[in-house]
Amino acid sequence: MKDVTPLIEEWLSQDIDAWTRRVVRRHFDPETGSPYWLKRATELDFDPRDITRYEELARFGPMPIGDLRTMDPAELVPQAVPRPLTGRVWESGGTTGNPCRVYYTEPMLEQRAAWRRYVIEKEGFEPGRNWLQASPTGPHIMGHGAWDLIDLYDARVYGIDFDPRWVKRMLRAGRLSDAQEYTDHLVAQMSDLLETQPIDYLVTTPALFQALAKARPELVAALKGARLSGTHATPAMRRSFLQALGEDKLLVVTYNNTFGNTIALPVEQDGAVMPCVPNYPQITMGVVDPQDWTRTVEYGEHGQVKLTVMHDDLFLPNILERDLAVRYDTGSDWPCDGVANARPLQVVRTAPEGIY
Q: Cross-referenced SUPFAM superfamilies, in alphabetical order (predicted)?
C-alpha cells in the first residue's frame, strides 16, 4: 500500500493565505489561466491577482451555481493543463435543479484518493478486506471511491446499480410508492451480496443504510463496520445505526458532496455533536448567516454551509450549499474550521433528499 502520510502532512502545513495566492494567480494568469475565470475577471471591479489573503475571496461574491449547470467544465481548468482534456466529468446529485458538472484532473483524483486512504486507516478499517460500495454510480464521484479502495487499500470491492436521481424524480412527482419500490430494489441488491459474499465493510449513504437496517437487520449486524457518506444524518440516526451494527463495530458518518469531502472526527457529548473537517487546503468550509452570507456565525451556532474549492486545477470560491450546519471550533487540531450536524437547509418536494 502507498504511504500517503507525507502528502497529507505537507497539505496540512500549508499557510492558507499563501495557498490562496498560489491558486488564484494560477487561474487568473493571462496566458495560462482558466478560460472561465479570465472572462469573469473582465467583469470584476478589482484585479484578482491583487488578492493576498483568504478572507479577500469574499470579493468574488457567491459562486454562480447556474454556471456550473450549463458551461463546459473544461472552461474551469487552467490552460496550463495540456489540451485536449481527457478523463471523466463528474456531476452533482441534481437535488435543486439540473446537475452541476466539474472536471477532475489526474492530480485532483490523486488528492481525493490520498485523503481517502489516509482517513480510512485512521478510522480503523483494515486493509485487504472485502467491501460493498452501495453508493451512487454513473456520473457521481462517490462511486469512484471503489477504485480508491482497490488501488490504495488492497481491497476487493462489490457494487450495485444506484441512480439517486430516479428517487428524487419520483418524490418530486409525489409518487411515493414508486420511490419506495426503487429503494426496495437497492436494498434487495445489497441483501443478495451480503447474504452470499464474504463482505466485511459497507460504504453507502445514511438513508440507504437506514433502509437496509430496517429491512434486513441481521445482515447489518453481521458486518464488521460501515462508512456512511452523504449530506444528512442526525445524532439519532447515528445512534440507531450503531445499535444495528453493534457497539463494538466501526461506524463512520461523514458529510460529503461532489465539490469536496470531509473527515469525521470523534463524536462529542454522547453523540449529540458529529463534527467533520474538510480536506484542507484544497477544501475549506465556513458557516454563515443564511440571510447575510458575508457574516460568519459564532462557534456553536447554526448557519448555512459555505464551501470554497482551491485546487491547482479547479477554483470555486464561496459555494453556498443547500445545507445547514453548526460551526465547529477545531482549536489547534486542524488548520481551519469544521462543521457539525449537517442537514438540509430546507426540505421541499421540489428539492428532495431521496436516498442521499
A: Acetyl-CoA synthetase-like
- Is residue 53 domain-resident? yes
Cα diameter, the chain: 62
Asked, for residue 310, whether it belongs to a domain, the answer is: no
The CA-atom distances, in angstroms, between 343 and each of 50, 230, 243, 254 are: 36, 10, 22, 12
In a domain, 78, yes or no: yes
Q: What is the pLDDT of residues 106-149, one digit of tens each?
A: 999 999 889 989 999 999 999 999 999 998 887 887 777 888 88
The span from the CA of 195 to the CA of 39, in Å, is 55
**Residue 308 main-chain phi, psi, to 5 deg:** -125, 130
Task: Answer yes or no: are the C-beta atoms of 273 and 293 closer than 8 Å.
Answer: no
Contact status, residue 152 vs residue 116, Cβ threshold 8 Å: yes
Task: Say how many domains are in the chain.
Answer: 1
Question: What is the predicted pLDDT for the residue at 96?
Answer: 61
Cβ distance 176 to 201 under 8 Å?
Answer: no
AA identity, residue 123: E
Domain residues for 40? 5-87
- pTM of the predicted model, to two decimals? 0.92
Could you tell me if residue 62 is inside a domain? yes
Residues of the chain with pLDDT under 70: 1, 94-96, 231, 346-356
Q: Is the dihedral of CA 14, 16, 21, 24 positive or negative?
A: positive
The one-letter amino acid code at 308 reads T
H or E element that contains 253: strand 250-255
Q: What angle do CA 181, 187, 189 make, to 5 degrees?
A: 105
Res 111: pLDDT: 92
Q: What was the pLDDT predicted at 125?
A: 95
